[in-house]
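Justification of resources, computational component.

The compute hours requested in this renewal are based largely on the per-chain cost of generating structure records like the one below. Each record pairs the submitted sequence with a full structure-token output. That output is archived, and it is also reused by downstream analysis tasks.
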Amino acid sequence: MPVETPGSVTHWLTLLRAGDPQAAEFVWDRYFAQVLHLAHRQLLGMRDRSQDAEDVALSTLNALCHAANHGRLANVLDRHDLWQLLTTCTLNRTQIGRAHV
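The structure output for this chain reads:
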């Protein structure tokens, strides 16, 4: 098991699972731009512009915090797990928009 340091994503994930609001802020600050960029790339060229990349990014990170508050992040142990989850959630949210095209 990796050693957690105060600046590591693993450390902040532990705190997020414990309900620490500063941990949620850390995750938002650290990942919002990346999630936004991914959402924007996925939504490019869609005829149906009912979805906005920023809305997708906000929804993804909100869902992450909601899952953490309800004890559903037990398998998200490090930055790789977190990024995989964020990617999957973001892609799922953009695919919903694509289904309406």
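The chain has a mean pLDDT of 88. The helical segments are 9-17, 21-43, 53-69, 79-99.
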